[in-house]
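Lay summary. Proteins are chains of building blocks that fold into shapes, and those shapes determine what they do. In this project we predict the shape from the chain. Here is one chain we studied, written as its sequence of building blocks.
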Amino acid sequence: MIMGSNVALADLSDDVGSVIVSLGWISPTGEGDADVSVLLLDENGKVRSDGDFYFYNHPVAADGSVQLLGKNPTADGSEDRISFDLNAVPCGIDRIVVAASRYGEARFGELEDVRITLADAAGESLLRFAVDDAGSVTAVIFGELYRRGGGWKFRAVGQGYETGLAGLARDFGVDVEDDAGAEAEVALAGADADDQADAAASAPAEEPVLETALEAVPAPRRPEGEAIEPRKPASRPRTAKKKVTLPKTVKKTLAENDSWKQARLFPVSVLKSDRDREMRATSVLLSVMTQVPEFSRRLTAGFGAPAGRMETFTEVSLPHGDSPRRPDGVIRVERAGKLWTALVETKTNGNALKADQVQAYMDIAARRGYEAVITLTNDVALEGSPLVDVKIDKRRKHKVALWHLSWAEVTHQAQMLIRHEGVANAAHAWLLQELLHYLQHENSGCHGFQNMGPAWVPVRNGIDEETLCQGDVRALEVVENWERLIRQVCLRLGGELGQKVLPVQRAKRGTDPKERRSRLADQLCLDGRLQAELRIDGTPGVLTFSADLRTGKLRTGIDIPAVDQGYPLSWAKRLLRRLAEAPADLHVETLVDSDTGGPRGTLERLRPEPADLLPKDNSKITGFRLSLLKSMGSGRGNAETGFIRSVDDAVHRFYTTVVVHLDTPTTRRAPSKVRAAAE
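And here is the predicted shape, written in a compact code that computers can read:
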């Protein structure tokens, strides 16, 4: 593309619900770099709040619409990738600006081959735009994604800023304040560890600083007389290192029989009490985080932690009133002479957080200038519904953030790295594998959400007896736990597939999470069903899931749109061929554009006669609906006969026996005229 040109993403590919944007450059010295940033803008061209500005200290959106994936070395430079889930972008966002900035006195003119590329969800590269003659600017808007006619378009911008990251952010409505030494804070927060000392020494005195960068406690001064080791110039440009993942086939064991157990770094057989499990789980996790930076960054980036040197501690004693408090762990990250500190409170098995305990840690963190308190349990936090209520003293200048992490999310991130994306070396892969084995062991207590709560049985009985009334708080509790379960199902399935799996939130249900859950609870009282939708990258449609508490049945399904070319009978034959190995009891329904509904039947009956899928009244076929039924577990827990286990099994069975056999969304090339305009 050339500067100022634009193109509709739908003209380049059919699979642009999720896209990967990559910003790259070549440094002749092998050391130059830049930091990417993303701004979500409303129709007025401004951010709605500072939370719409994503950069190195705020890399992940809670709704999954934006995720800064970090830097990857290439054969001759560096590349920064950003994942956009365009289906999850809030409806109030009109434009997405993609930019990058350099720190200190560095300029984009010192870099070569400055470019932006965009790929669809299938990984096929769709467009490329080179930013030529960047010159003396310290920040550049590479391009922007914007809505048009119900779809998304991309515009090649290439606009430079001499005022750096702060100037760029200010132009789009991000709050910026003046502070002494601010340039050092902005520059050093984005610098590599080797660059920090030089950048700190050369930073000018008074420049703007972004409020979104968290305040940090200064590190102890360097002892006088201690020399700063000069940076060694690179002898040659850095090259990409091959990442290590687990082998797909398991090596044959040397054990004499199945009773032999492999030696493990983190044994679990000695764990006898919940206290033992909490202490062991905390120590195991924090120690692996310090050794595997890719893993620790994934867990802490969303909490505002910078990328820097990390140290972790367990059973730290901190003063609090008459008796000291002992948080389960402490995380400290040093970057650019600043410290970021978080207290960690851990629970295993079904143990719940204690509000007074978390409140005490929040007070301690505020007094000591720490940035966050992180709770880590088997429970899953929901938007707008905190696990514990804490009081925030608004008179305190220093603010402390309260974050929650589920053991299921920890497991998911470990799976993604060692099974799909890879880590820096074999030792890191082995450490993560040992951690994963520990977390998944039945005695670790780190099994994720595993109980539908005390309201589960009364609600089921009320639905059977038709005595459950709208407004019943027990129905709301079941809906909240259902949402927790679905979020955990997404994490588990995504970890197995190596793909993004997210629950779909329909706009018609409202944007306020509490109001949405209240409406779903009333609907549960009326029809006795819990419903959810999952969007999985690379699948031809949205996976639907429902639990009918009246009949005790789970239904998993997917709608496949009809193709644009060919004959209806050819569509039916092709679909049945693709489903040759699917379960015989799979239900297949033809979707038509009339109110009468299309033909339906089981796969076993339809295989000999594909023509039975064609409507008799010649209605236009719009697609096909595939669904599987399964009896649901009755218990509220995670046992073999429990509801939670049956939901996990139903989703896993449907995906592995049905969805994997379907055609992935096809990627069609743009017409020659469109490609010519784009280039």
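What the prediction tells us: The first helix runs from residue 164 to 171.
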